[in-house]
Amino acid sequence: MRLGKKCQKSLGERYIFVGGVPRSGTTLVQKILDCHPQICGIPEFKYTHHIIQLRNRMRRSVDNQMIDAICSDTDVDCYIRSLIDSFFTPIIMKHHVKYLSEKTPWNVLVFEELMELYPKARFIHVVRDPRAVINSMIMVRKRALKKNLPVPYFTKTISESIRTTRKCLDAGFDAARKFPDRVLTILYEQLLTDLTGETKKICQFLALDWSSEMIDFNKRNNLAEQSMMVGSNAAYYNTEMYHQNPLAKDIQEWKDLLSAKERVAIQRAFYNHPDLRKLGYEFNLAYLSGLRKFYGQSVYTIEAF
Fold this sequence. Notes:
Blueprint: E1 15-20, H1 26-34, E2 39-42, H2 48-63, H3 73-95, E3 99-103, H4 111-117, E4 122-127, H5 130-146, H6 158-178, E5 183-187, H7 188-193, H8 195-205, H9 239-243, H10 254-257, H11 260-270, H12 274-278, H13 290-304
Parallel strand pairs: 1-3, 1-4, 2-3, 4-5
Helix pairs in contact: 2-3, 5-6, 6-11, 11-13
């Protein structure tokens, strides 16, 4: 006997899901969103993609006729929605806002499934130069080691950082291609150089009036602040880092910090990525001196075999 269809179907019209490669600027976007009077930006829930993975496994079991006597695909989706809603809806009611924004970088890996579950939810894909992203991952690894904290798996090697970056980018770009009206792609670099213009673009996407409070995002506390600096999260932020204003001059800081070998590895991984090229990211080694370029290419080639 199957489960009864007692749960109500939520369309997700009050949800914003933010995702992107870890270290791509999702935290900055969430801080900006939370400053809008009609948006509550909650701390990283961290479990949205795990819940969706459970949903996917259960649906496969239904399709394989392993649990189809217990539930259908529709039942699974109905109860998964109810589970997520049970966490999010009370927060919306408590803060009297139009939208709840859930920012966990890994959300990007399940954007498409979330779109199936919530046909009226909105999604923001944050994109940043992979060289800057991976440089930031390297800094996370160093801080984790210094503080004797667990080292995130995607920061352990340059190869793993590249794989994670590509996987997340491709998932976000794929979702945007399939659902262009529901996914807004925001470039981290453009946020730093034209914050007013980019926040107006976000508000237009969400059908909200623009609020000047969004450009003063570091002048107020938010719900996520404390959680971003406790436990293993201390490898990502401290109080000073969390509250500092990112500056346009820091966009190419990676040039001073990445080794020649690291630059060559990243350049080879992304130089022909069509979506990144379309957004204006260029990957070449023109800024390296001839000797450093030769060294980086030689070391990378030797270690690759």
